[in-house]
Write a structure and sequence with these properties.
This protein is of the alpha/beta class. It has a single domain, classed as Rossmann fold, CATH 3.40.50. The protein is 33% helix and 25% strand. Strands 6-7-8-3-9-10 form a six-stranded mixed β-sheet, with helices on both faces. The protein has a four-stranded antiparallel β-sheet with strand order 2-1-4-5, covered by helices on one side. Helix 4 packs across helix 6 and helix 6 runs parallel beside helix 7. Bound molecules: adenosine-5'-triphosphate (ATP).
Length: 271
């Protein structure tokens, strides 16, 4: 990364342990919507700079668990998290933690590509760095935008149309734009909630290739209901069923020697 990109917050002394073995550590995490417990006592360690897939059938609590990792559940009235969630060594629900800083460090990409449609491609990526004051000159902002679009494997396709509205991009391009938008904030962890559910197979494989590339720099936690996708992209997988963690481990191990009958059923498509 050019030195000029290391401006703003990244120069400040950080409380996050950036060299931590685990990107995320969940301990006895339960999550409620009102009185309804939808995630039940989940303990899980997610190694840094890996792709970790959370898989399970619809309604098993995957998205809820994912959203607890960057305090997105703060926006859901009645949602409550119990237990401890550490991100790069820091308890993100502790008093005094700024949820905005948590969400900068832990970016998120959703199922439906959701760029701001009337904003230009450039502005979609520049918005976060503007809000967080991550640059000192227009030139530096241009560099961040280019860097993020390159990292999201979109630069070559959009470099001559940066000021066109994002709505003119295809669905797959829009999703990569959302990835660029998240990357522009220099996150260390990227949460992806079924990022290819609305994409065709070609756009899906582009995103999957991108995931493999990105894990060199960020930890990726991806929610998928597809065991095939988990097998293709993930180093580690966790299988969640009815809010409970059934098993977790290296992808190869879980797929070749599942310890639990439920996991085997899920992997063979019996759900
Ligand atoms: N805002 C909410 N208020 C109340 N209940 C909710 C809310 N969001 C989700 N739920 C419920 O929590 C449970 C888990 O939902 P969640 O979306 O986390 O599961 P999921 O495994 O991601 O499912 P899917 O694959 O269908 O997205 C479901 O029973 C769902 O109906």
């Amino acid at each position: 990364m050019p030195v000029s990109l290391l401006v703003g917050r990244s120069r400040q002394k950080s409380m996050w342990r950036l060299d931590s073995t685990y990107a995320v550590e969940l301990e006895k995490v339960s999550i409620y919507y009102g009185g309804k417990k939808v995630v039940k006592n989940v303990t899980l360690k997610i190694p840094r700079n890996t792709v970790f897939a959370i898989m399970g059938p619809s309604g098993s609590g995957k998205s809820t668990l994912l959203r607890s990792i960057n305090r997105m559940l703060d926006f859901v009235p009645g949602a409550r998290v119990e237990g401890s969630i550490r991100v790069l060594g820091v308890d993100i629900y502790a008093e005094g933690i700024d949820p905005i800083e948590v969400r900068r460090l832990v970016g998120m990409v959703f199922q439906m590509p959701n760029p701001f449609p009337h904003m230009s491609i450039y502005e979609n990526v520049a918005l976060g760095p503007r809000i967080h004051k991550m640059y000192r000159s227009k030139k530096e902002l241009d560099e961040i935008v280019r860097w993020a679009l390159e990292k999201a494997a979109l630069w070559d396709e959009v470099k001559d149309r940066l000021h066109e509205p994002a709505s003119k991009l295809s669905g797959g391009q829009q999703q990569r734009l959302c990835i660029a938008r998240a990357l522009a904030l220099k996150p260390r962890i990227l949460l992806m909630d079924e990022p290819t559910a609305n994409l065709d197979p070609i756009a899906t494989s582009k995103i999957e290739e991108l995931i493999a590339e990105l894990k060199k720099e960020v930890t990726i936690i991806i929610v998928t209901h597809s065991p095939r996708q988990a097998a293709r992209v993930a180093d580690y997988v966790a299988f969640i069923y009815k809010g409970e963690l059934v098993e977790a481990g290296p992808t190869k191990e879980v797929f070749t020697r599942p310890k639990h009958e439920l996991t085997e059923k899920f992997l063979t498509g019996a759900f």
